[in-house]
């Protein structure tokens, strides 16, 4: 029975062309030696598909046995070559240093490889004399292969040698390799890739791709809602890294059994292809489709070079605008040349305080997507752990700006679902002209720092809201105002935990412009519960109503309470 090995490190060292990755899968999809008659290199060279070959070295060792064929087109792929494997290459790994062929030949001979087949048509045009001499000394065969030879044809032929019973699956695998090889540079959309995979897999399939351009999904055999839930769980809920997760993993997601392979979730996005295993397990060809398609998914992510260049350009532009040595006139020229007109800009400073459980690549992706949607400028500070984002005000209505900035805040809030210990601070300035970028960043940084001091982590603090509080937080003012503010809150402070709950409700209500629906939403309460708590606060504080001056004093006292109750502050 043909099988695919679980050893796929070579795939992580490929240059990205599927011609170099697909056949390494073929390397390990071979029949057990005890059941498959051995081929010799001499027999293979008689095949018509190798017509026109030339034996460059090791002509006395052509009777060596061959169990499989492998393609290496990455420098370190030789580390996974097995005994009796015939190694073929386009010579890409050694094109910059032909002398490296000597080292490659020595390593292959030490691993008891069956020989080396090279195509001298694209990278190297001829083998160096020292490489030929060393191969002769070691008795190691080197064959110049015909240029038109397709790697998949050679591998499929070796597979088929296993006999009639295994020939059907071998031929099927060969067809998969051939199809994916032909599409390695021609896949232009997720739909094309889906059609390719669905043509070979007879189980329900879900393909998902996420880049700065957004989230794309294709599926067959499952409902749209199930496909979306599955894709979000597999892309966002899975461990990510810079290298592709080449091995399909079998897991259960929301009661659904799947075999899944992912592309690495880097700063530009990632993707996954999953086969749903409800009543039938994925076959070896199904798993091969998973392994091969994940590289094409990564190709689709990497193809978005224009977007990456735009993001890099925006980061540089924001860096230039923040440069204090740049004149205001020069800033205005840069803005007029690179950016559309806007009704002012907000600067947002984000500082990460604790990110032990955070997937930083996923957060960066979300911030890049936000920047693309709202034509914002994003810059990650060189020190790490801090971002500066310049967000254009979408209109004269301040509520539209608030909606955009709430969306930015939600990007960080959603990270808490997967990283409960994540701590951050958000400070917002403006709006003002982007030519005042340095001032805007200073205001946003002050708002973030003071907001964390007053209200703790994981909140967004607006500079305008902090102005009065920063004046009142001066040590001399705090010392003078402490008795009066504490006397105002004393009835609630004396109630212990119940009073703390009432003060939190009152604080959120005042901060949210006295909106009961928003207060209820933020606290997870019914509107009537909020109304009852506010009425209870009024009664406990012995107030006839919440007059404007009373609301102002309550707002300041509640905001400054951490400083009022801490003499050292």
From TrEMBL:
InterPro entries: CdaR-like_regulators, PucR_C-HTH_dom, PucR_C-HTH_sf, PucR_dom
The name this protein goes by in its record: Purine catabolism regulator
Superkingdom: Bacteria
Domain PucR C-terminal helix-turn-helix: 502-559
Residue ranges constituting the Purine catabolism PurC-like domain according to the UniProt record: 43-160
Gene3D superfamilies: PucR C-terminal helix-turn-helix domain
Species annotation: Aminobacter aganoensis
């Amino acid at each position: 029975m043909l099988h695919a090995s679980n050893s796929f490190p070579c795939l992580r060292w490929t240059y990205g062309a599927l011609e170099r990755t697909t056949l390494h899968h073929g390397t390990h999809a071979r029949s057990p030696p005890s059941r498959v008659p051995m081929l010799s290199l001499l027999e293979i060279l008689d095949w018509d598909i190798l017509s026109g070959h030339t034996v460059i070295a090791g002509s006395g060792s052509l009777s060596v046995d061959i169990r499989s064929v492998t393609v290496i087109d990455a420098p370190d792929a030789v580390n996974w070559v097995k005994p009796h494997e015939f190694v073929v290459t386009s010579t890409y790994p050694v094109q910059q240093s032909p002398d490296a062929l000597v080292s490659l030949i020595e390593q292959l001979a030490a691993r008891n490889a069956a020989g080396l087949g090279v195509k001298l048509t694209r990278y190297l045009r001829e083998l160096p004399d020292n490489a030929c001499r060393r191969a002769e000394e070691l008795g190691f065969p080197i064959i110049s292969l015909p240029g038109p030879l397709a790697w998949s044809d050679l591998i499929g032929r070796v597979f088929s040698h296993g006999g009639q019973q295994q020939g059907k699956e071998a031929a099927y695998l060969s067809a998969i390799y051939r199809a994916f090889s032909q599409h390695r540079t021609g896949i232009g959309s997720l739909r094309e890739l889906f059609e390719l995979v669905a043509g070979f897999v007879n189980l329900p399939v879900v393909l998902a791709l996420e880049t700065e351009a957004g989230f794309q999904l294709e599926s067959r055999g499952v409902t749209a809602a199930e496909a979306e839930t599955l894709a979000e769980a597999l892309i966002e809920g899975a461990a990510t890294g810079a290298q592709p997760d080449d091995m399909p993993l079998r897991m259960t997601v929301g009661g659904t059994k799947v075999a899944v392979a992912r592309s690495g979730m880097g700063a530009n996005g990632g993707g996954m292809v999953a086969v749903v295993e409800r009543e039938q397990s994925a076959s070896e060809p199904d798993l091969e489709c998973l392994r091969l398609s994940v590289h094409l998914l990564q190709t689709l992510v990497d193809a978005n070079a224009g977007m990456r260049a735009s993001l890099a350009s925006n980061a540089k532009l924001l860096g230039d605008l923040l440069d204090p040595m740049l004149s205001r006139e020069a800033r205005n020229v840069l803005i007029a040349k690179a950016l559309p007109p806007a009704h002012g800009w907000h600067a947002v400073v984000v500082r990460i305080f604790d990110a032990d459980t955070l997937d930083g690549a996923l957060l960066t992706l979300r911030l890049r997507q936000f920047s693309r949607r709202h034509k914002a400028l994003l810059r990650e500070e060189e020190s790490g752990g801090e971002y500066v984002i310049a967000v254009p005000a979408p209109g004269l209505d301040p509520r539209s700006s608030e909606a955009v900035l709430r969306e930015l805040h939600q990007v960080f809030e959603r990270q808490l679902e997967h990283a409960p210990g994540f701590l951050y601070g958000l400070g917002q300035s403006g709006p003002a002209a982007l030519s005042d970028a340095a001032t805007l960043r200073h205001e946003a940084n002050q708002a973030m720092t003071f907001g964390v001091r007053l209200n703790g982590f994981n909140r967004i603090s607006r500079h305008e809201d902090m102005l009065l509080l920063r004046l009142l937080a001066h040590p001399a003012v705090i010392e003078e105002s402490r008795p009066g503010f504490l006397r105002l809150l004393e009835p609630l402070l004396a109630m212990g935990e119940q009073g703390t709950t009432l003060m939190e409700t009152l604080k959120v209500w005042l901060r949210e412009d006295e909106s009961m629906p928003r207060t209820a939403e933020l606290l997870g309460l019914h509107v009537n519960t909020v109304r009852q708590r506010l009425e209870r606060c009024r009664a406990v504080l012995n107030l006839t109503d919440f007059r404007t001056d009373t609301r102002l004093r309550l707002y300041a006292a509640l905001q400054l309470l951490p400083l009022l109750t801490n003499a050292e502050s």
